[in-house]
């Protein structure tokens, strides 16, 4: 019954000549076919567009591992400044420059809910017994701390030797932890891992009568403000006691 053609009200056997008839079965089939065809064409266009856009960044290889900030990441175009343009992070060092660096990264540890900790590729420690939050810190903040260490080492007259060589005791016998060397290596890993693939260009310089490399081009960047806001929002403001071992019930593949 549902599939049978039933006349609509007003669709009688003797229509007035000037009143348009409802479409016949054949006409309806044609109409449906036309709709299906136009949808197929639209779908093909969208696919073609999608394929064209995916040539910009084509995802191949390992899928990204879970990060608690993955859902807030958006991308934006950022014009990098000319090399001679000074920022508030440039030297020579002042209290204001130091504060700018502190504001950039010094947010401590973040507390994430247990549901997010459970999705991490690696187990992390609960903040405290019964708190149901877990400790993390995004790599980028450690790397900015490292860059600041290296910056300080460039100005030994202002910063003490402690900023240049941080010898951490108790990591096995004569082993000396060279903080600066560790930092250089961390940044090497970060730079090759994230690999900014924006091309620098060369332009003719009339004054010097030679072509010179230019870095003031637009880069595609993760939205830094969103990441920084996340770290501010989730930062731990109460004391974390490193010497208390809190046990929990999360299970990870690399558990012993
Ligand atoms: C994190 O997970 C990886 C992959 O399972 C493993 O190789 C690595 O040792 C883990 N790191 C820590 C600190 O547990
Ligand atoms: C951290 O926990 C240990 C062990 O319970 C305790 O002795 C110590 O006083 C705690 N430290 C702080 C600063 O609360």
UniProtKB/TrEMBL annotation:
Signal sequence residues: none
Pathway field of the UniProt record reads: Mycotoxin biosynthesis
According to the UniProt record, where is the region Disordered?
A: 1-23
Q: Highest taxon of the source?
A: Eukaryota
Q: Which GO terms describe its biological process?
A: mycotoxin biosynthetic process
Q: Does the keyword Transmembrane helix apply?
A: yes
Q: Which residues cross the membrane?
A: 31-50
The question of whether Protein transport is a record keyword is answered with no
| Keyword set, alphabetical order | Membrane, Transmembrane, Transmembrane helix
- Family per record: Belongs to the ustYa family.
Q: What is this protein called?
A: Tat pathway signal sequence
């Amino acid at each position: 019954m549902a599939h049978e053609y039933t006349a609509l009200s007003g669709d009688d056997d003797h229509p007035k000549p000037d009143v348009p008839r409802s479409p016949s079965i054949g006409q309806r089939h044609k109409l449906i076919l036309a709709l299906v065809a136009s949808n197929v064409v639209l779908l093909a266009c969208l696919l073609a567009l999608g394929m064209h856009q995916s040539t910009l960044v084509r995802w191949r290889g390992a899928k990204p591992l879970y990060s608690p900030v993955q859902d807030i990441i958006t991308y934006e175009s950022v014009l990098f400044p000319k090399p001679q343009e000074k920022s508030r992070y440039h030297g020579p060092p002042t209290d204001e420059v130091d504060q700018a660096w502190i504001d950039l990264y010094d947010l401590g540890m973040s507390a994430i809910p247990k549901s997010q900790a459970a999705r991490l590729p690696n187990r992390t420690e609960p903040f405290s017994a019964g708190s149901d939050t877990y400790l993390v810190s995004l790599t980028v903040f450690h790397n900015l701390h490292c860059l600041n260490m290296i910056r300080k080492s460039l100005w030994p007259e202002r910063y003490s030797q402690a900023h240049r060589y941080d010898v951490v005791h108790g990591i096995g016998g004569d082993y000396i932890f060279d903080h600066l060397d560790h930092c250089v290596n961390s940044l090497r890993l970060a730079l090759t891992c994230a690999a900014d693939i924006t091309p620098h260009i060369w332009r003719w310089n009339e004054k010097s009568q030679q072509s010179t490399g230019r870095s003031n081009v637009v880069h595609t960047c993760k939205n830094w403000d969103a990441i920084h806001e996340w770290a501010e929002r989730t930062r731990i403001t109460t004391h974390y006691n490193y010497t208390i071992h809190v046990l929990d019930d999360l299970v990870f593949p690399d558990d012993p």
